Amino acid sequence: MISINISDKSFWDIKSEGYLFLLEEDFKITSLMDVIENECCPNLSEVLKKNKFEGKIGQSYVLTGMKDGKLVQFVFVGLGSSYLEWAKRLENFRRASDKLVKILKNLKISNSVLSISDLYEKNDIKISEIIKQFAIAANMADYNFTTFKSGKKEEFNFSISLTDGNSEVMIKEKALLEEFLFEGNVIGRSANMSRHWCDLPPNILTPTFFAQEIASIAKKSGLRFDVFGREKALELGMGGFCAVDSGSEQDGKFVILEYKTSKKDAPTIGLVGKGLTFDSGGLSLKSSSGMSEMKYDMSGAAAVVAVIKSIAEMKLDINIVAVAPVVENMPGGKAFRQDDIVTFMNGKTAEIKSTDAEGRLVLADALCYIQKFYKPKTIIDIATLTAAVAIALGHFYAGLMSRDENLVSELQEAGNISGDKVWRLPLDDDYFPSIESDVADIANAGRPTYSAGTITAALFLEQFVEKDVSWAHLDIAGVAHAHPLVKGSTGAGIRLLAEYLLKLSK
Ligand code: BES
Ligand code: ZN
Ligand code: ZN
Q: Does the Cβ of 352 fall within 6 Å of ligand 1?
């Protein structure tokens, strides 16, 4: 477990096992590093050069030396070029922080100190934001999934002190900086909680178990929690939810979480997360390679739980209601079929062209439910919805679809600050004929001649959103897992939505 603190002592006055340096490509030996040269390594720049450390992103070098008669480690990590725009530099800072934390864990450096003064001085980013982003990145770097490794597992506890060159800012703004550090810790830890659920295997994280886990988090965070299963879903007329649920031995759960601020007239934001604990494709069965990693099909649900938990812990002046249909898509004897027609909670019907396009079916009912009982003016849904989004955008941007220009720019901005990036795809009616059906209101899968499966899925969902609601759809199928830089679950969408809501509430 990592713990981060803000220190008002100056860098070298903090007694540590590790002294950390994040250096840009064109770095110079600063007065801070003079100490290393004076005490134990007369020619630091030559040493770094000889060891091919040039400050590039991904590079690192560890030098062991003496300070005050004790063996210490000087850890250098590259920050990349300084000639990049701020969002890219902030991302490189997060990646360098990730690398740093992994080195500390690997070398078992229990306490260390990092100076962040040159970072914010050179960037157009406030020191408070730097601290928040460090806390998020460092906590997320500390995550690993070892639950099912049977060998000896020891939790490594370590601390990092953040300091400023002259400590003036640290003293003057201590309360504000502590608040941002707290926010960063909350978001990073909530993301790790969500990633753990995502990484759990589908035989363990069944809908029943997942709902219990969410209930226990709700209790700890003071959130209102409600859940119902098949019977009530049937009563409510949730034909989409019930169809997907029907092929599994596991009873599906519809989960509702609510956070309320005491502030009068605060807006209510609705969050909807896709919670397929496993997506076999149902009777439109996936190939075995297509089925692997389908335990991650509940990443949207795990994300909305992490977000509402973060908001509750930060006590933001905003109301949130989060709903998650949590089900398993299986081809059992009672499974729904191709050619079936299902009727959703709002009376609309859909012809089933593929039982593998199940996400939009459960989300359609979830959208109806949240609007009927909570009437939020803004709704954001988040789902591992289509393989097509990974073809379009790969693993670095989630697909964003919305007709609300304001909401789009707010989410894009939150993406750029948090590094949890989104790219807008057109929600254009030209694509709509793709999901027209001869026998029902719409079809649940697009015609192949139209391609653009990510957009047609969004157009399907839009049929369940009332015209006066500001709505955005996030397709995280490309970013939630299988990321080239992250093992297992990435926690996609959590940093994005937490940042968006933080800004909205302030
Ligand atoms: N859960 C999948 C989407 C997915 C695919 C997520 C790959 C992560 C990685 C979704 O339910 C699905 O199967 N979608 C189909 C829809 C199609 C049948 C219209 C798809 O994208 O192929
Ligand atoms: Zn599917
Ligand atoms: Zn799915």
A: no
Q: Does residue 444's CB lie within 6 angstroms of at least one atom of ligand 1?
A: no
Q: pTM value?
A: 0.97
Q: Is residue 185 part of a domain?
A: no
Q: What is the 3-state secondary structure (H, E, C) of 164-177?
A: CCCCHHHHHCHHHH
Residue ID of nearest Cα to ligand 1 atom 17: 357
Question: Do 494 and 183 touch, CB atoms closer than 8 A?
Answer: no
In a shared domain, residues 129 and 241: no
Report the nearest-CA residue for atom 22 of ligand 1.
387
Same domain, residue pair 135 and 233: no
Catalytic positions: 286, 360
Count how many domains the chain has: 2
What's the chain's Rg over C-alpha atoms?
24
Q: Tell me if 403 is assigned to some domain.
A: yes
For residue range 98-155, list pLDDT tens digits in order: 999 999 999 999 999 998 877 766 667 788 999 999 999 999 999 999 999 998 888 9
Q: Sort residue 188 into left (φ over 0), alpha (ψ -120 to 50) or beta.
A: alpha
Of the three residues 162, 180, 215, the one that is the final residue of a domain is 162
Q: Express each pLDDT in 27-38 by its tens digit.
A: 888 888 888 988
For 250-276, letters b (16+ CB in 10 Å) and e give bbbbbbbbbbebeeeebebbbbbbbbb
- Same domain for 321 and 235: yes
CA-proximal residue: ligand 1, atom 7 (nearest): 387
User: Ligand 1 within 6 A of 453 CB?
Assistant: yes
Residue 145 sits in the same domain as residue 208: no
Domain of 379, CATH number, reads: 3.40.630.10
- In a domain, residue 183? The reply is no
Structural domain including 25 reads: 2-162
Q: Say if 410 falls within a structural domain.
A: yes
User: Which one of 329, 386, 437, 450 would you pick to mutate in the ligand 1 pocket, going by the greatest count of ligand atoms within 8 A of its CB?
Assistant: 386
Instruction: Please check whether residue 496 is in contact with residue 400, taking contact to mean a CB–CB distance below 8 angstroms.
Output: no
Residue finishing a domain among 117, 147, 162: 162
What separation in Å is there between the alpha carbon of 278 and the centre of ligand 3?
Answer: 8
